[in-house]
Amino acid sequence: MTSPDSDPVDRDLVRVVDGVLHVRISTERGGNALDPDGLDQGTTALRQVAAGSLDVGAVLLYGPGANFCAGGDVRSFAAAPDRSTFIAALADRFHGLLLALADADTPVVAAVRGWAAGAGMSIVCHSDIAIGGPGTSLRAAYPGIGLSPDGGMTWALPRIVGAARARHLILTNAVITAPDALEMGLLSQVVGSDDDVVPTAVEVATRLAAGPRSALRAARRLLADGATAQLVDQLAAEAASISVLAGGREGIEGVDAFVQKRRPDFTAR
């Protein structure tokens, strides 16, 4: 992956493999606390995706250790000379990543091994497909340190689990186990072993990247817009989208492959 010389890419934090943008969102310090450098590097790469200068078909979010992300580094909060200013700056960096994730308009897969707490749970809420294991646990966490949520949790969580359940999960700071997270729709899949979480997430992201990228992006947009659209408007948007895709390279290949009883090849770019 290339990047301007003024903003070099740290390949330990961001890299492209098989058409998938891998972004490491936490550090092994502090039980896998949110990594500000990972946020910055991920934001830069995602902006390149949105601008069309970096061609990927999926984004993989992961943590390097036993946990996906245990939230912000609370010890750094405590050590800051001005805690309000410090946390405001960190929230801005965090929110920059989430906005870039939305602007990139690409399927997002999260490898949710171990804990996803605080900011980590917020990130899960912004993924399209979240893969967990038997040891995966989620928690809002913010009330436990006397803070309110950030990372769009109060926007995304009610849309996933419903308003009443979102209030309960945030206000009571409840621990959400993997089976419960799957039932609520926070996780898309729970694999049999925690060791299988990251490999499975990589496999899913790679499969998405090899698929019909225009169609997947269009489906994501329709799903997002459909949450607030009127039925008549959503039907019109769906008709417009499917008709455009039918005349595109991927749509032509997909339909022709079906008729010819062969596997479609969407990999030509």
In short:
By secondary structure, the chain is an alpha/beta fold. Helix content is 48%, strand content 13%.
Can you offer a commentary on this structure?
The chain is α/β, with parallel strands linked by helices and 269 residues long. It folds into two domains: 14-209, 2-enoyl-CoA Hydratase, Chain A, domain 1; 213-259. 48% of the residues lie in helices and 13% in strands. The chain has eleven helices and nine strands. The strands form two sheets. A six-stranded mixed beta sheet has the order 1-2-3-4-6-9, with helices on both faces. It starts with 13 loop residues before the first strand and ends in a 10-residue tail after the last helix. The model is unreliable at 1-9 (pLDDT under 50).
Strand content: 5-15%
Class derived from helix and strand content: alpha/beta
The overall strand count is 9
| Averaged pLDDT | 93
CATH topology of the largest domain: 2-enoyl-CoA Hydratase, Chain A, domain 1
How many structural domains can be distinguished in the coordinates?
2
Low-pLDDT windows of residues: 1-9
**For the largest beta sheet, what order do the strands appear in spatially?**
1-2-3-4-6-9
Termini, distance in Å?
17 Å
CATH class of the largest domain: Alpha Beta
The percent range for helix content is: 40-55%
**Topology as H/E string?**
EEHEHHEEHEEHHEHEHHHH
CATH superfamily of the largest domain: 2-enoyl-CoA Hydratase, Chain A, domain 1
CATH architecture of the largest domain: Alpha-Beta Complex
Shape: globular
> Given the structure, what is the number of helices?
11
